[in-house]
Design a protein that fits this description.
Structural class: mainly alpha
Strand content: under 5%
Number of domains: 1
Largest sheet: none
Number of strands: 0
Number of helices: 5
Radius of gyration: 16 Å
Helix content: over 70%
Oligomer: single chain
Low-confidence stretches: none
Order of helices and strands: HHHHH
Length: 103
């Protein structure tokens, strides 16, 4: 299977696809919970939902990273790190005004 390969390209592809797909799924889950009344976003800041969803989506890369670590697929782990660091950099840049407002 595709994800059972120990190479950087596999890690890069999974490192890009998992957060993007996760963002889409988590966002849909938040919207569904809001529509059925199980979650009320009032009282949170405007960017809370976007910050939280994107951070959770980035953190989803921990799952394949740990699976590759157990199997000692070092090249795939290395490939996962590049998009994760890229997404974290984008996240910090995008929300820098909120993150560093008291500095």
């Amino acid at each position: 299977m595709f994800w059972n390969r120990n190479n950087i390209i596999t890690g890069l592809i999974l490192g890009l696809l998992i957060p993007l797909t996760g963002y889409w799924l988590i966002k849909g889950g938040f919207e569904l919970l809001t529509q059925i009344g199980a979650f009320d976003p009032t009282g949170f800041s405007e960017s809370w939902r976007a910050r939280t969803i994107s951070l959770l989506a980035i953190c989803l890369n921990i799952i394949p990273f740990n699976l590759y670590r157990r199997r000692r697929f070092d090249e795939s782990m290395r490939g996962l790190i590049f998009p994760t660091v890229l997404f974290v950099g984008i996240w910090v840049f995008w929300f820098k005004d909120f993150l560093f407002q008291n500095i």
